[in-house]
């Protein structure tokens, strides 16, 4: 069976790291390249974190450093005023957060990023392709938005675009918005209305695909570098979620590794449930709803439906996929 060609677009923090490991170790995916973007942390950090993960995997997949700032939102500091600020807390003299400056679980990288930028790479790779590349974007959509503006022709060369971002009933950064979309609303609107075939994996689905402490312990008991790293990342996320963002549909001691669900959906879309074709737009107004993912639930929408949206997920299947892929016995030989 031919592997599915993919490009990963990431802002590597803890859940991106698990997503990268899942994609690289999957037998179904051929990761052609990884592009990084400013998001969970500055792009210098997200690039370094990405390289650390690939070094752990002994992988030579090329990494391309992407955009350092959002397209427009960062030009107006007042647009940041509505953001929820409790993304870190002190506990026992230690800072607890969802994404530390660097992946402390992994040593500094030895490998280096490529010389050309993420935007240049995306345009070249897509134009040189046979239209057979799926892009999995799990951070702010700045790289893709800029690339589409620079060369609109690439839109027709994207086989499929799987995006982790947004939320209909669930938000995490403001009362209206999820982080990836909120960080660069203009880029998100460009991408979502581009005409690509798009599958959106929002918080509505990822919050239901949680991983708990018992499963983290099983990863640790594997005793492999990947199993131990996965457990370390999950444990840090569980602590942060329990302290700052308990999930109503998950028990205490759980965390959603959001980005890994988007990767698993690229492997087997049945890991998602209640997927509907909807009209989706993004609020770019700069006020209370800035960055809001606007999903039109009506049968007759004002604008054509443009995005397949997953409103739920099969948690058992998701966790099973993670164990199967990240628990490969031959991973140390890669």
From TrEMBL:
One of its GO terms (cellular component) is cytosol. InterPro entries: I/U_nuclsd_hydro_CS (IPR015910), Inosine/uridine_hydrolase_dom (IPR001910), IUNH (IPR023186), Ribo_hydro-like (IPR036452). GO terms for molecular function: purine nucleosidase activity; uridine nucleosidase activity. Pfam families: IU_nuc_hydro (PF01156). Residues 6-319 form the Inosine/uridine-preferring nucleoside hydrolase domain. GO terms for biological process: purine nucleoside catabolic process. Keywords: Glycosidase, Hydrolase. This is Inosine/uridine-preferring nucleoside hydrolase domain-containing protein. The lineage of its organism: Bacteria, Bacillati, Bacillota, Clostridia, Lachnospirales.
């Amino acid at each position: 069976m031919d592997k599915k060609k993919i490009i990963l677009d990431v802002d590597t923090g803890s859940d991106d790291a698990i997503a990268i490991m899942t994609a690289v170790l999957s037998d179904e995916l051929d990761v052609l390249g990884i592009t990084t973007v400013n998001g969970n942390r500055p792009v210098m950090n997200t690039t370094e974190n990405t390289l650390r993960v690939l070094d752990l995997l002994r992988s030579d997949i090329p990494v391309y450093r992407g955009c350092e700032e959002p397209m427009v939102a960062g030009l107006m500091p007042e647009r940041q005023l509505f953001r929820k600020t409790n993304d870190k807390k002190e506990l026992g003299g230690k800072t607890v957060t969802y994404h530390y400056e660097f992946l402390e679980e992994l040593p500094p990288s030895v490998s280096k990023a490529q010389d050309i930028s993420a935007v240049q790479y995306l345009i070249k790779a897509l134009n040189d392709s046979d239209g057979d590349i799926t892009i999995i974007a799990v951070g702010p959509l700045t790289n893709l938005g800029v690339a589409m503006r620079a060369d609109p022709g690439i839109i027709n060369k994207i086989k499929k675009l799987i995006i982790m971002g947004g939320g209909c009933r669930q938000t995490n950064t403001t009362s209206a918005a999820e982080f990836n979309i909120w960080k660069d609303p203009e880029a998100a609107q460009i991408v979502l209305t581009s005409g690509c075939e798009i599958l959106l994996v929002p918080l509505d689905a990822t919050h239901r695909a949680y991983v708990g402490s018992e499963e983290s312990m099983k990863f640790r008991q594997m005793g492999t570098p990947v199993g131990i790293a996965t457990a370390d990342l999950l444990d840090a996320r569980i602590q942060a979620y329990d302290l700052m963002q308990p999930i109503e549909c998950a028990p205490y001691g759980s965390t959603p590794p959001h980005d890994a669900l988007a990767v698993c959906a690229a492997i087997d879309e049945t890991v998602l449930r209640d997927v509907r074709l909807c009209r989706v737009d993004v609020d770019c107004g700069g006020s209370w709803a800035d960055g809001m993912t606007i999903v039109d639930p009506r049968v007759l929408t004002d604008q054509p439906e443009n995005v397949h949206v997953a409103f739920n997920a099969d948690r058992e299947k998701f966790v099973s996929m993670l164990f199967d892929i990240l628990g490969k016995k031959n991973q140390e030989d890669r």
